[in-house]
Automatic annotation (TrEMBL):
Modified residues (N6-acetyllysine): K632
Protein name per its UniProtKB record: Acetyl-coenzyme A synthetase
Record organism: Variovorax humicola
Cofactor (UniProt): Mg(2+)
Residue ranges of domain AMP-binding enzyme C-terminal in the record: 550-632
Function: Catalyzes the conversion of acetate into acetyl-CoA (AcCoA), an essential intermediate at the junction of anabolic and catabolic pathways. AcsA undergoes a two-step reaction. In the first half reaction, AcsA combines acetate with ATP to form acetyl-adenylate (AcAMP) intermediate. In the second half reaction, it can then transfer the acetyl group from AcAMP to the sulfhydryl group of CoA, forming the product AcCoA.
């Protein structure tokens, strides 16, 4: 095969393999591949029995279920549908009377470094009191409540208290605008907003309550009766009489009341609605059920993170994202872990903050996003003092990533500099819609390959298919699907069941198979999954299928020059589609002449790494890339820029609008 016709899916073959060593396998919950395979086998031979067993072993049911999976109304699947439980009881009450009750549940580190610890027993007391306060405000089972809170113990309490009374929460990330908030309040028909006067991030005091006022003032939020305000700082806030009440006042009203008994709900009762980040269009209200979601949150803590009683777990995600739901607000508590909750940002007071906190709290499991890793690599290289080498990271046992494909280069840096070549990295693939991990290595079993999320968890029937739903062989790129339902899957899109069906269960594939929306390829040798980007991120250049992720990885592998890169396509008369690259350099922004030279160098580099067919036609340089507030690249914006279109999309979730101007010039 000549290099020009070389298919993208066969290149950048990663040959490095890191099998788990004895430290990782010894005593692991799933130890060795044989143990993993045995669980997969159990799920394949007796699907119903497998899930029944796990749901009985891992969840406390107030009313046991008799039906495991009901497929009669597919794709509106129901799990454990006649069972009853309470999510908060499964996270808190369950530990009372066990050694866990006096264990630290949360180590909270504030923006300014102040540390507060709370035990399981005390957390239960506070959740119970706040649940009473919510009831006193007239909030009932089935009501929707918006949570617009900073990363704090109170943020977790707000979510748990909603779950305790059977109210469905919808957390909105504290960086979202008034407009985004208003849209979500209206779509969810929320009766209350739980917020804070201000939040503290990077030494700055940023308003939350004022944005809630703004959002509601934009109109249409007629269902809102109450706004509860946590006074995070001493700064005054403006009160709307008859609607607003502070936490202190709301708690005072219920002082002396006994504990709030957890409200049993049906397993299918909506625990929460979470609007996806919007990197691909109008936000969707992803609805999750109580029983199946909680089961998977608990179980993946045990499986993916191999959680042990002495672990200190730290997931850096905000509670405004699914990762902060499953691996901050629910999973760690359901599993009885001690976890770190961090209010601030990774770069304040210096880019060594994460490493310093790992040292200080003796974190043993650290879970973060590739975007954070990439920015900290850049910082470590330019600022000696924030280099991880300066910190004692010996407490670390397991590392994880989530949110985007991780480039092999960034993976290796994480492995060397943070894991010190001792810690398995779990590259967890999942989505808001999947509720928890679906494809991920197991730290005590799976040989790791940088940049690969490896294999599906037991019971997750993932596959790669073509447009018609036909299975593709290893080595061929296609669409990632999950062929059988699983307990923590999305139940519907709130208010829009038709969109649910159309987006995730396409008719052409039979209407019952879950379409993830991501492209993937399995390696020829191990059958490992590698995510190649979203389905709409596969380009067709002169008849060659190019994964944008591959080209990005090639660009970023020019480590002396490139800090970050994003690739999208634009229509081209000659080649069908043309490759357009957006590049952040490690050095400052180049002059015109330098930009031309660097662009030429990068084209040659890509040609050498992948093949001339993948050479970017346009290259644009910026200090950063346009990202959502969860740190994901906004590809739909890049596509508009690449096409030279005016930007008409909703940019309400865009973090750094100024970057757009820098990207105007193509080289
Ligand atoms: P929207 O659906 O609104 O566009 P989003 O997809 O960015 O938002 P999430 O549900 O938070 O919102 O992200 C899930 C997506 O993130 C996946 O579909 C995938 O594209 C990407 N992703 C998550 N984890 C990984 C991973 N480990 N490897 C590769 N991609 C990942
Ligand atoms: Mg998505």
């Amino acid at each position: 095969m000549s290099s020009t016709s070389k298919n993208i899916e066969s290149v950048l073959v990663e040959t490095r393999v890191f099998p788990p060593d004895e430290r990782a396998t010894k005593g692991a919950r799933i130890s060795g591949m044989a143990a993993y395979e045995a669980l997969c086998k159990e799920a394949e031979t007796d699907f119903d029995g497998f899930w029944t067993r796990l749901a009985r072993e891992n969840i406390q049911w107030t009313k046991p279920f008799t039906r495991t999976l009901d497929e009669s109304n597919a794709p509106f699947y129901q799990w454990f549908g006649d069972g009853e439980l309470n999510a908060s009881a499964n996270c808190l009450d369950k530990h009372i009377g066990t050694p866990t009750e006096n264990k630290t549940a949360i180590i909270f580190e504030a923006d300014d470094g102040a540390v507060t610890k709370i035990t399981y027993k005390d957390l239960l007391t506070r959740v119970s009191q706040f649940a009473n306060a919510l009831k006193a405000q007239g909030i009932r089972k089935g009501d929707r409540v918006i949570v617009y809170m900073p990363m704090t113990i109170e943020g977790v309490i707000a979510m748990q208290a909603c779950a305790r009374i059977g109210a469905t929460h919808s957390v909105v990330f504290g960086g979202f605008s008034a407009k985004a908030l208003q849209e979500r309040i209206i779509d969810a028909g929320a009766v209350a907003v739980i917020t804070a006067n201000y939040q503290l991030r990077g030494g700055k005091e940023l308003p939350l309550k004022a944005i809630v006022d703004d959002g509601i003032a934009q109109g249409g939020c007629t269902t809102i009766k109450t706004v509860l305000v946590y006074e995070r700082t001493l700064t005054d806030w403006k009160r709307v009489e008859g609607r607003d009440i502070s936490f202190t006042e709301a708690l005072a009203e219920v002082e002396g009341q006994g504990p709030c008994a957890p409200e049993p709900v049906n397993a299918e009762h909506p625990l929460f609605i979470l609007y996806t980040s919007g990197s691909t269009g109008k936000p969707k209200g992803v609805q999750h059920a109580t029983g199946g979601y909680l089961l998977w949150a608990k179980l993946t803590m045990d499986w993916t993170f191999d959680l042990r009683p002495e672990d200190v777990f730290w997931c850096t995600a905000d509670i405004g994202w699914i990762t902060g739901h499953t691996y901050v607000a629910y999973g760690p508590l359901a599993a009885g872990a001690t976890q770190v909750v961090f209010e601030g940002i990774p770069t304040y007071p210096s880019a060594g903050r994460f490493w310093q906190m790992i040292e200080k709290h003796k974190v043993s499991i650290f879970y973060t996003a590739p975007t954070a890793i990439r920015s900290l690599i850049k910082a470590a290289e330019s600022d000696e003092k924030s280099h991880p080498d300066r910190f004692d990271l010996s407490s670390l046992r397991i590392l994880g990533t989530v949110g985007e494909p991780i480039n092999p280069e960034a993976w290796m840096w994480y492995h060397r500099n943070i894991g010190r070549e001792r810690c398995p990295i779990v590259d967890t693939f999942w989505q808001t819609e999947t509720g928890g991990h679906v494809i991920t290595p197991l730290p005590g079993a799976t040989p790791l390959v940088p940049g690969s999320c490896t294999l599906p968890l037991p019971g997750i029937m993932a596959a790669i298919v073509d447009e018609t739903g036909k299975d593709l062989p290893n080595g061929a790129g296609g669409m990632l699907v999950i062929k059988r339902p699983w307990p923590s899957m999305i139940r519907t899109i709130w208010n829009d069941p038709e969109r649910f069906r159309k987006s995730y269960f396409p008719e052409e594939m039979g209407g019952t198979i879950y379409l993830a929306g991501d492209g993937a390829v399995r390696s020829a040798d191990r059958g490992y999954f590698r995510i190649t980007g979203r389905i709409d991120d596969v380009l067709n250049v002169s008849g060659h299928r190019l994964g944008t992720m591959e080209i990005e990885s090639a660009l970023v592998s020019k480590t002396d020059l490139v800090a970050e890169a994003a690739v999208v396509g634009r229509p081209d008369d000659v080649t069908g589609e043309a490759v357009c690259a957006f590049v952040v350099l490690k050095r400052g922004r180049p002059t015109e002449d330098e930009a031309r030279q660097i662009a030429a160098d990068l084209r040659n580099w890509v040609a050498k790494e992948i093949g001339p067919i993948a050479k970017p036609k346009d290259i644009r340089f910026g200090d950063n890339l346009p990202k959502t507030r969860s740190g994901k690249i906004m590809r739909r914006l890049l596509r508009s820029i690449a096409k030279g279109e005016a930007i008409t999309q909703d940019t309400s979730t865009l973090e750094n609008p100024a970057i757009l101007e820098q990207l105007g010039q193509a080289y």
